[in-house]
Amino acid sequence: MSESQENVLEMRDVAVHFGGRGGFFGSSGAVVKAVNGVDLDIRKAETVALVGESGCGKSTLSNTIVGLQTPVSGSVKISGEEVVGADSRKLNDIRRKVQMIFQDPALSLDPRSTIGATIGEPLLVRGIARGKALKERVGELLTQVGLRAEHADRYPHQFSGGQRQRVVIARALALEPDLLICDEPVSALDVSVRAQILNLLVALQKRMGVSYLFVSHDLSVVRHICDRVVVMYLGRFVEIAERDTFFANPKHPYTRALMSAVPEADPAVQRSKQRFVLQGELPSPANIPSGCAFHTRCPLATEICSTVRPELTPRPDGALVACHHA
Amino acid sequence: MNTAASPLLSVDNLTVEIGGANVVDGVSFDVAPGKVMALVGESGCGKSLTSYALLGLLPDAARRTAGTVRLQDRDLTALSERQLRKARGKEISIIFQEPSASLDPLTTVGAQIAAAYQTHNNVSRSEAYDRARQMLADVGIPDPDRRLHQYPFELSGGMCQRIMISIALICSPQVLVADEPTTALDVTIQAQILDLMKKLVADRGTSIVIITHDMGVVADIADDVAVMYAGRIAEIAPVQSLFDDPKHPYTALLLASVPKLHHAPKTDLATIEGRVPTLSEFGAGCRFADRCPLATEKCRIEQPPLFDCGGGHRSACWHIDRMPEIRKVAA
Q1: Which residues of chain B lie closer than 8 angstroms to A275, CB-CB?
Q2: Which pLDDT score, from 0 to 100, does residue A326 have?
Q3: Over the stretch B227-269, which tens digit does the pLDDT of each residue have?
């Protein structure tokens, strides 16, 4: 992956570990290696999907990018500026460029603030706008996400789930970030509303050139909205590929298992599709299996898989895959 | 329905009221032995209340005001609470979305499964544990002897849902009601649980009423589907017929809003404008009328009955003949 001005995010060999340092009585606890040496670039106006099961490290990775989590090693650059080790003033400045939206909009909004106050807060805190200018900017942001300027005086409870997610998006866009991290942004929404929010995210990207890191487990949504897909398993990336390559020719056995596990909304397709069912469940990240972390559940595993960890290697079609047998 | 066999479970005109509004309004469906009926809809459509009403488990605020739930030749709604308690677990069981919230955290899972068996069978503790062990093996839990003595917190979410299924099925009920049984689980675990439920249907002939909002789950497991909207059944049909040829605008738009293989990426998906009406906004006509591209004056005034479209397919829409217009919107 080449360094370039166009990358809004550049991560190199990032690792985030928890626990293990002594504990209360000085005994050493187990180290949870939530993220374990990942490289990731995101280009301008690109959407990258991060896919994996609960406990695979997706949320830790997202938190690390926005600086809510400090890596034990590695480098994270947002629009060319290093996040790791930056002083708080610098960090504050960098954070403007990356914003985050979460799964449940009801939990991300202050029930006692009008949505106008909520959306305007980042602008006010950073001294970008106040008074009449602030009000105008808030109205503009509301219009951008498909709400109306006069909604500014209402409270979150007066909106439906989909409208609340629009408010959250408006707040995230207030500082005109380069990168928006969307952590399962439509999973808590009803199906019909989901489509509205996806359409909105696509339209905003076309208009503003914002990049997305889209954390999701829903592959039909990923296929619709993303340019590139990254699959994560127990703290490492196991497959990275452009969307079309990824869906036409998934290679890692875990990727194939995920794809066959997601039910297609078409009975004929769903019932005739080749199943690639996984045995067992995700091992604890405090006790990651040796060699390839996936070998305990992998139908293709052989001797070498339990001893030698496969590196991400490029394939003829451009995909990067970490597997001895794929 | 399209099945020749007489139904095992027959729900007729089920109506549940909360604060004067019919949140479940005249719901009727049949489930044949060994078949899976899916109730689909978005939040607030009444699908969960319908499932609770089947077992007489409605919350205090809700009241069943009409309708019957016949299990074979017995009307469950006519039973006393005492009789109902005997039927629950033995003839009809229910599992919920969040297994860890349904299990007792202070009791081993073995004791919980055994208790379910002992409630309905006069057997010794050790015999009940033997049954529990066998049941754990049946639901695919490795090393059942060890698992019997563990507490729910020691088990993963998928494992807990298997325990819930064990408790629900240990007395071999004829009907299992599953309220969003896989929503809280990861997709690979969801696939395992759906496979397990299909296996149970095949091996034991258990009928399932599954409540879900996920069209993928419906496509995977259901034989028949009832699409609910604002407390009423909008459309009911055999699964393939519903996906291939929806006869209600709501179903068609709902299906179109899910991204499919043939959709070009990053293009607009079909959406349903507006929102579900609240209880106080239920009008006299079709409850979908305000959001429906086909709605006419008649839709707002008069409630459409479920029209028979043949092949077990029924739809509550005045404008079934105009469905091609919807397909244009949804394409």
Answers
A1: 191
A2: 85
A3: 999 999 999 999 999 999 999 999 999 998 888 777 788 888 8
Residue range(s) defining the domain that contains residue A29: 7-97+177-321
Q: Residue A273: inside a domain, yes or no?
A: yes
The least confident of A130-139, B10-19, B96-105, B254-263 is: B254-263
Burial of A124 (0-12, 13-18, 19+ CB in 10 A): middle
Query: Any residues with CB less than 8 A from the CB of B39 and at least 6 apart, and which?
Result: B47, B50, B51, B209, B210, B211, B212, B226, B228
| Residue B325 in tokens | 């217009």
Which residues pair with residue A179 across a beta bridge? A98, A211
pLDDT at B2: 45
A166 at the B interface (CB within 8 A)? no
Average pLDDT of span B211-216 = 92
How many CB atoms are closer than 10 A to CB B166? 26
**Closest residue on chain B to A199 (Cα):** B268
Give the tokens for residue B87.
Answer: 């039927």
> Which CATH number do you get for residue A28?
3.40.50.300
- The answer to the question of residue A145 being in a domain is no
- Do the beta carbons of residue B323 and residue B14 sit within 8 Å? no
Helix (H) or strand (E) holding A59: helix A58-65
Q: How far apart are CA A18 and CA B217, in angstroms?
A: 36
How are beta strands B62-71 and B74-75 bridged, if at all?
Answer: antiparallel
ipTM for the complex shown: 0.83
> Is residue B305 within a helix (H) or strand (E), and if so which, with residue range?
none
pLDDT in tens, A42-73: 999 999 999 998 888 998 999 999 888 899 99
Domain range summary for chain B, segments of one domain joined by +: 99-172, 244-330
Cβ contact A262–B187 (<8 Å):
yes
What is the pLDDT of chain A when averaged over all its residues? 90
Cβ neighbours of A239 (radius 10 Å)? 27
